[in-house]
Amino acid sequence: MVTYYKAHAVADALEVLGRTDVEAKALLGGTDLLVGLGDRLDSAPGVVVDLKGLADGEPLAVTESGVRIGLTVTMADLLADPTVSTWYPALAQAAGEVGSVAIRNRATLVGNICNASPACDTAPALLVHGAQVRIASAAGERVVPISEFFVGPRATTCARDELVTAVELPRPVPGTGSAFQRLTRRWGVDLATVSVAAAVHGDGRIQLGLGAVAPTPLLVDVPAGTDLTDRAALDPVLDEVLAVATPISDIRAGADYRAAMVRELAARTLRAALDSTRRTQA
Amino acid sequence: MGDALKAQEVGTLRPDGNVGTRTKRYGGLERASGAQKYAADLDFPEALQVAIVTIPVGCADILGVDTSEAEAMPGVVGVLTAADLPSPMPRFGVSHKDRPVMADGRVNFYGEPVAAVAALTQEQADAAARAVTVDYRELPGVYTLDAALAPDAHLVQDPSDPTKRAGDPLRETNVIEEQTIAWGDLTEQEAKAALVVEDSYSYPMMTQFPIEPLAVIAEPTDAGGLTVYTPVQHPYLMQRIVAGLIGKTLTQVHVIAPDPGGGFGGKQIPKYEPLMAFLALKLDRTVRLTLNLAETTTAIRRAGAKVHARTGFSAEGDILFHHVVIDYQIGAYADVAPRVMTKGSYVGGGPYRLPACRIEARAVLTNTPVSTAMRGYGAPQISWATESQITDGARRLGLDPARVRLRNLVDNGEEFVQGEFAGKADGEWKEAVVKAMELAGWDDPLPPNRGRGIAVGIKSSATSGLSQSLVRLLYDGSAIVYAGTSDMGQGARTIWAQTVADELGVPVGKVQVISGDTDLVPFDLQTSASRSTVFMGTAVLRACRDVRRQVREMYAERVGADPGDIDDEPGALLTPEGAVTLDEAARIGLGALRGEVLGQGTCRLEGRKGHPLGGDASFYEFNCTISEVELDRGTGQYVITRHVSVSDVGTELNPIQVVAQEEGGAIMGLGQADMEQLVFDEHGRLLNASAIDYRVPTYKDVPLELLTGSVENHDGPGPYGSKGMSEGPILCTGAALGAAVTAAAGVKVTDLPLTAERIWRATRAAAEGAIA
Ligand SMILES: Cc1cc2nc3c(=O)[nH]c(=O)nc-3n(C[C@H](O)[C@H](O)[C@H](O)COP(=O)(O)OP(=O)(O)OC[C@H]3O[C@@H](n4cnc5c(N)ncnc54)[C@H](O)[C@@H]3O)c2cc1C
């Protein structure tokens, strides 16, 4: 049987999560956790620690250096925030694709990355936006770049007795553009078969974040100066940089289709990212 | 059907009546607000909760079942295994009585019950179910049609078992039934053909996906019988089967069938009810089984099919011959599923004038869950092939596929199935095609990457059946109608209320409809085959007329008139002195003792021996569908930009319900065409039972524009010239969508569902072929 525990502060939550006599799981929106528990709760972990009422939980905050996304911030919150959509179009587009209106009202960004599905929609965007993950434990706090956060399917560097408290995004270099696209089996409420975020940074770097084509979301660099408007020239470049992708065949798609689609979406999102830099400049 | 119902009897619409208007849904507010009580909402405080024990493979010999640990667990009241059941194992089924109450020494499909645990709470039952140890040896089960039809295939049903296949000439194979419909000379026609199209098609297994999962409550009665609560489309059949299995009379088995939250055929055969009956009797306790969505998806499905077709055309687009070989994958037990094959393949030639045709169909057993009826009943599987063939023929001849259909469609009264058991058109079907073409803007040019496709569908409705109804006209002018049709979302209750209101002249809000209870409501065969409007509708109509006849006689007697001088019409008696409203006449007739007038109506259609359908169809459903898509060439994804569905409905009894059925059927058909499929692994396990991986359309997946229409010639056998219409829009959706995709992509996909990946593969294969 599951015990529900409503934590009132980060330290309080960490204490319960640190107990060794019982298995404890953090709860935010519950859109992954509760689905995983199923509709019969007998096989569930011992304690579910609800983090939604933390007195010291952080909100969505815009700072000089960027944006700080606290653990209770939902996809709907991200979509409603004008700074997020101006500075981080890829993240806003990814947040807007998650589930449905009802899901986005509950699903948090932190929950999305902590669940660490290879198909997690916000991960590719967070990768190209250079996000940092703040992790708290009884011993204190550490900060991990998102590119090191995921270690395998449903596994992160955040240990059992730790908590992710926030995701921080650096303020983009002026002239940066980004975009996100995903492929699904149907238009409404689906998990990505393949997802790609692209950023064309103001300093010339070009990056791709890839979802559902490897055990973890991947970050790859596209050589600076690549002409993103010439598809014929771009495709061989993409073939090279996308070689790190190791898509599998499963019930959602065949590996070869995923491989072809990651290339297709990469070309499209790069183009869209480039167009969005032009929009910001105009 | 003509004999069953005389033309003058069907009545005409009252200009000021309810029938034919957009009367509000009976019980609609309750459904929308959540007040409607579905089976899972019923409260049984004393009931034990049940969990079913299964094994994680689709085919295995059971070597032992150890329940000792489970029985000792907290809250567990009892466990039922095959050893508790009579020997030989009791079996049930609607046309083949081959389905065991629980696995009989061998598990033949994934999910087949091996034991059932009853405990005080669901959690306790689930935990105990996991503690039941089943010792089994996996067998090389057959999970696909190819495997089942291979020469040395594992036989799903033991050929020596006298309860099943003894004496059956096909018993050494997995074919449980076969049927050939043929006329004309294929060779002779082929010699004349300018083009022969030959291709193979596949249609996947799918689930009905009712939003309300299955639920059963079995409650022992003081009289030694049972009350069974189950949201099904066949309460009377359920009653007969359960009573037969437990050796009780019909009066001892009371079936209460709350309005199903969607059925689509999936709630039309008994599944867990027999097991629950034995469990309730063993424990002498009320027992309750509530399945979740994934368990329901595992338990009910439509037959998949593989088809090979050859079709010949003249250069002008006449279809000269059509030869189809189709195998339906029906599952581990036959039950009623072979009928899906016989009914589906009977109309396999389509509604066309064919000089020669041959449909060879087989129903094939596999170690997969038992298939059953689903909206369209075997017709969508074969129409996917037949209609794709016609589209392909037109395309290759450079002809307009809509006009090729108009050219070959039969006229009203003309045979589209020839021979001893001919099938004749019973409507102006070309009108539906013309109307659909108009709505779709068929001849308007399309922007690049768009494609349009057309198909027509046909299905025979019920070929026999019986529906009985009672109507009570109460003293205050209100009325109660008893009709055993299950209202599972199609709005049956509304139609009965409208009919009674018009026939008796009662305001529609004063008509109460009672159904879903075998103790209260007289017999109805079942809610299936779009039969209820015609069959039960006629029974209700007759019950109303019986009320009117009785009122006329009572009134005449009371006022001392000659009944012969009094006539009646809907809602009134016509006396020499003038019209008297029916409720007023009833009050006069009933007199000081008051009371009520009780009318009875029956509609019966006998089958015909030897007929492949068991009888002549009471009517045909005809539909024309046009789909339009916009294709993304890079990914194979497409948006359905416009979808048109037009059916021949005879008469719209309630236009808003007709549109709802047409739209619902079209959306369901599109889901089945573009995303739905059940996928089993090499151990026969269902891989995508969950709502995450069994995809059905969401609101974002419906066509951008969904247009529906109907043809109304008041030529149906039902009340006011109506026909059943709830399956029409799903009959040919796959072929219409497939044709649209082909038009946009330039490639033909022969397997459903039409996923983006399949289209991408076909496009790539075509491009590679062009280069090579
Ligand atoms: C119908 C439906 C549609 C969906 N569609 C999408 C989609 O399109 N794209 C997509 O990416 N996802 C989708 N999801 C998955 C899910 O909604 C998202 O992953 C969501 O962001 C999870 O957030 P949550 O707040 O609900 O997390 P929860 O379910 O509360 O938690 C998720 C996981 O993170 C752990 N966790 C929570 N908080 C912390 C913390 N502070 N520190 C460490 N671990 C923590 C939990 O223990 C749990 O394992 C969908 C889910 C559903 C049910």
Name a few traits of the molecule:
heterodimer, A: 282 residues, Uridine Diphospho-n-acetylenolpyruvylglucosamine Reductase, domain 2, Enolase-like, domain 1, four-stranded antiparallel β-sheet, 11 helices, B: 772 residues, alpha+beta, Aldehyde Oxidoreductase, domain 4, Aldehyde Oxidoreductase, domain 3, 3 domains, seven-stranded mixed β-sheet, binds flavin-adenine dinucleotide
Q: How would you summarize this macromolecular structure in one to three sentences?
A:
The complex is a heterodimer of chains A (282) and B (772). Chain A is an alpha+beta fold and 282 residues long. Helices cover 34% and strands 25% of the residues of chain A.
Structure description:
The complex is a heterodimer of chains A (282) and B (772). Chain A has helices at 10-17, 33-37, 75-80, 82-87, 89-97, 101-106, 109-115, 122-128, 146-149, 231-241, 255-281; strands spanning 3-6, 24-27, 47-50, 60-63, 66-70, 132-137, 140-145, 150-152, 155-156, 163-170, 177-183, 194-200, 206-211, 218-222. Chain A is an alpha+beta fold. Chain A has a five-stranded antiparallel β-sheet with strand order 4-5-10-6-7, with helices on both faces. A four-stranded antiparallel β-sheet of chain A has the order 11-12-13-14, sandwiched between helices. With 772 residues, chain B is an alpha+beta fold. Chain B folds into three domains: 16-36 and 465-605, Aldehyde oxidase/xanthine dehydrogenase, molybdopterin binding domain (Aldehyde Oxidoreductase, domain 4, 2-Layer Sandwich), CATH 3.30.365; 39-139 and 213-259 and 266-299, Alpha-Beta Complex (Aldehyde Oxidoreductase, domain 3); 304-462 and 611-771, Aldehyde Oxidoreductase, domain 4 (2-Layer Sandwich), CATH 3.30.365. A seven-stranded mixed β-sheet of chain B has the order 3-7-1-14-11-12-13. A five-stranded mixed β-sheet of chain B has the order 9-17-16-15-10, with helices on both faces. In chain B, helix 10 packs parallel to helix 17. The A-B interface holds A 1, 39-43, 100, 183, 185-191, 251-254, 257, 260-261, 264, 268 and B 122-123, 126-127, 292, 634-635, 637, 639, 674-675, 679, 687-688, 692-693, 695, 697-701, 755-757, 760-761. The structure holds flavin-adenine dinucleotide. Flavin-adenine dinucleotide binds at residues 25-33, 35, 51, 71, 97-99, 103, 106-108, 110-112, 114-115, 120-121, 158, 163-164, 189, 191 of chain A. Chain B: Pfam families: Ald_Xan_dh_C (PF01315), MoCoBD_1 (PF02738), MoCoBD_2 (PF20256).
